[in-house]
Amino acid sequence: MIRKEIVERIEGEARVDYEIEEDKIAFAQISFPHFRGMERILEGAPAHDALMITPRICGICGHAHLMAAVRAIESAYAAAGSPIFITPKAHALREITLYLELVQNHIKWFYLTVIPALQPLCTETLPKTSGAFAPVALSNRILALFAGQAPHSAYAIPGGVTCDPSELEQNQALGMLEELEKLLVSDLLGTNIAAYMEIQNLEALTALSGDFSYIINEMEKNGLQGIGQSHDRFLVLGEHTLVSPAKITHTTLRMVDNDKVSEDDTNTFAKGGFTYGKNALYKGMFFETGPMARAMARLDPLIKNIHRRHKDALITRIAARVHETVLLITEIRRLLRSLDLEQESFRAPMPISRLSAEGVGIVEAPRGPLIHRVKLKSGIIERYDIITPTQWNLAHGTRENPGPAQRALMGANPHHSDIIFRSFDVCSVCTTH
Amino acid sequence: MNERREVLSTMFSTKDSQVMTNKGQDYYDALWQKCRARLDELKKLPIASSNSIDEVLSSEGYTRRDFMKWASATTAMLMLPASFTPLVAEAAEVMNRVPVIWLELQDCAGNSEALLRSDGPTIDELILDVISLEFHETIMAAAGHQAEKQLEEAMEHFHGKYLCFVEGAIPRAMNGQYGTIGPKGETFEEHLVRVSAGAAAVVAVGSCATYGGIPAAAPNPTGAVGVMDILNGKPIINIPACPANPANMVGVVIHYVLSGQVPELDSLLRPKFAFGYRIHDNCERRAHFDAGEFVEEWGDEGAKNNFCLYKMGCKGPMTFNNCSIVRYNEGVNWPIGVGRGCIGCSEPDFWDKYAYERPMADAKIKAPTGGVEKTVDEFGLGVLTATAVGIGIHAVASAVAGKKSDNGEA
Ligand code: SF4
After folding, report:
1. pLDDT for B202-250, tens place per residue?
2. Is the model's pLDDT at B401 over the cut of 50?
3. Furthest CA-CA distance within chain A
């Protein structure tokens, strides 16, 4: 039997056709029916236009696109022998705003995607989805303080950032961050941040009283903890203050080589296929990316503890993402406090019109590595390639070699299809760009 | 944000910057009566959404007084006399009787984002919470066939009464195959035509739905166009900008609830209350513009002192929108506030002509107000003269300081 279903409408539409045999999902075909042609739009445009256009690929993780674009152009400067050194302040500001976007994505995903999808499978009433609004609005306000607006800011430019915050903004941001922490402490975590940071195993986590542990407990009570396991292979490609690139297979960490990343378009309409989405591969293999991958790369004690018991199951995926939210908040505070406001926001690089080189910018976006590759000739874009996180997680493989989300769905109870699929958090507007 | 919006009342009552002339007491008296009657009618209708504004506001810790303050600011934003304030408040209270169907087409979901994400503590966003969203493709929990059924039910039940909000462009190339939707694989164009057929009015939210937006950027690979390029014979209200400001979405809904009509529009079908004046007219850096003090290079002394961004390519002088007043993210900030010039995101073709830091001289832009009604035209001309003066003074200053003159793209 084949059940066709449009599973996800957050951030555009993805379509999944399930093949069901003997009450189990035998295979799932994932396709993305929308296309805008962003890479072609960028060809022939001045390099700096990428800073305005690429954030508009996505209304939910556009800031990650901005950071990837600016990193790509800066890397082209380096390749041309004219490297750019941005000040620690500019770097910290970029990390702060990027992390704020991650925080709001994570919270929104937990409350607006995970909870509604889990509800039909749980006996108790789950926390209200409206729990997302206040913390999300706060994260965006702090982001806008430095970046001007959320979504779709373009405040980062090769050489630094355009904003020049004073102590006033720094304090305002710290104040709002404190409010945000208070909300998380009272609703999400049920304990203060310091106490939460002590937690290193699943038991201690489930003993808490916030929405996070409530969901974890409900999953265990309703026998959902083991579902949604995938390849147990993870990939992190972006370099940040919280995580470094790594490839993890069977808990073994290895270095990565960005040249081993490739795209496969055999399933696309252009090649007679059924989707606009291309697959992303590392050394020809599928890897799961995102918060769980980052937790494994960070050797995070709590997530490793959950992973030891449940491997890369739904429960680990959910826990890793909520857990990362807390780490990000702590890191944002550290970075905000350490800002040296005397430093320059921007240092002028060589005029872009003299730049002919190739560059690559990699950022850990909410759902995993986002890669922008650019080829510039006299400051004009000759080629622009974008690989987004969902191209990793929702790659479409074969029965023998399925993509991460497909692998997690295969063999699952059809009633669990929705939550398993959504746990990978589709971003279809990014995928097909 | 309320305080900022109150600036508007002052602005509209000063003579030299008047965008719309006062229409006279008789006009407003008649309008008041009409709105009163309309609200009384609406009150008789069954409630479409169960959220009541009072509950929602008090659960977020807002008092009646806060709400009335919001109402008076919104009245000012809609360019109505203060006597309409109680009506605006009532309109917000009966808003859940006006059903809204929200369609998401070729987009980045940034406008639903702007709406959803700021949903938290501001009154504007809470009020959007109360709108009776009968169908929203992004936030609908239902999927596939079930969603399709709900959509059909909503369309039938509210035939001729619902507002159809559209987010995203419509790709027409390749027979519309760049964007299909729903279990039947309908193209976006078919979907839009079908759903808007029974709508009282269509509201295009964001620059993609208005003009085609970023997907329509050269070479427009998917043949993307805006709602007004497709629909005929339907009232259309455009709320461009990328993303559109939630305050303006609320403004349009309140206006509709209040009067049963679309607000007064400019030639690009944008409500004049929001797009009747330019970024530049109320920009916080305007004094520097007039004094000829410009940022010459990112990060220079001028940048540190918040000088005008005109020479860095700011498009504020030709961009009609109210973000210099309403700002973004609950009024926290806006692009010019962080030293990034305006990119003109509420104007047609901003993606090709206005983009990033190309100074205007290089941006192949026609007269800023081409086609926009006369009052705005004249208003615009006055300020353009000031532009010339500003630059003139600046050129002298640059020459004295021995700096290189501005020659387009850095
Ligand atoms: S040119 Fe831009 S920065 Fe300068 S005053 Fe006008 S809107 Fe403001």
Report:
1. 999 888 999 998 888 888 888 999 999 999 888 999 999 888 887 788 8
2. no
3. 67
Residue of B nearest to A431 (CA): B108
For the ranges A199-203, A391-395, B152-156, the lowest mean pLDDT is seen at: B152-156
**Alpha helices per DSSP H over B321-373:** 323-326
Assess if residue B253 is contained within a domain.
yes
- pTM, two decimals, is 0.84
Cβ atoms < 10 Å from Cβ of A339: 18
B205 is in which domain, residue-wise?
Answer: 3-275
Judged by DSSP in three states, B186 sits in strand
Q: What is the mean pLDDT of residues A206-226?
A: 95
Report the pLDDT averaged over residues B14-38: 70
Least confident of A236-245, A344-353, B348-357: B348-357
Q: Are B227 and B244 in contact (CB under 8 A)?
A: no
Structurally, how many domains does chain B consist of? 2
User: Which residue among B278, B284, B309 has the greatest number of ligand 1 atoms within 8 angstroms of its CB, and so is best to mutate?
Assistant: B309
| Dihedral sign computed on CA atoms, order B166, B170, B175, B178 | negative
- The rounded mean pLDDT for chain B is 73
Residues B242, B325: one domain? no
User: Exposed, middle or buried: residue B291 (CB in 10 Å: 0-12, 13-18, 19+)?
Assistant: middle
Torsion angle of the four alpha carbons A412, A414, A418, A423, in this order, in degrees rounded to the nearest 10: 0
Under an 8 A CB cutoff, do B108 and A429 touch? yes
Does a structural domain hold residue B51? Answer: yes
Contacts of A11 in chain B (CB under 8 A): 109, 138
| Domain limit, last residue, from B275, B290, B320 | B275
Give the atom of ligand 1 at the shortest distance from the alpha carbon of B278: 7
**Between B380 and B88, the higher pLDDT residue:** B88
Residue B134 counted as domain residue: yes
Question: What distance in angstroms lies between residue B279's CA and the mean position of ligand 1's atoms?
Answer: 7
Looking at chain A, the whole-number percentage of residues with pLDDT higher than 90 is 63
Query: Which of B285, B333, B364 to probe the A interface (max A CBs under 10 A)?
Result: B333
Residue with the bigger pLDDT between B296 and A357: it is A357
At residue B396, does pLDDT exceed 60?
no
In a domain, B407, yes or no: no
Residue type, B406: D
In this structure, what token pair is assigned to residue A50?
């990428």
Q: What is the CATH number of the domain that holds B364?
A: 4.10.480.10
Q: In this structure, are B235 and B299 located in the same domain?
A: no
Measuring from atom 5 of ligand 1, which residue has the nearest CA?
Answer: B286
Alpha-carbon dihedral A366, A72, B310, A161, rounded to 10 degrees: 60
Query: Are A140 and B137 inside 8 Å of each other by CB?
Result: no
Same domain, B226 and B371: no
Look over chain A and give the mean of its residue pLDDT values, rounded to a whole number. Answer: 90
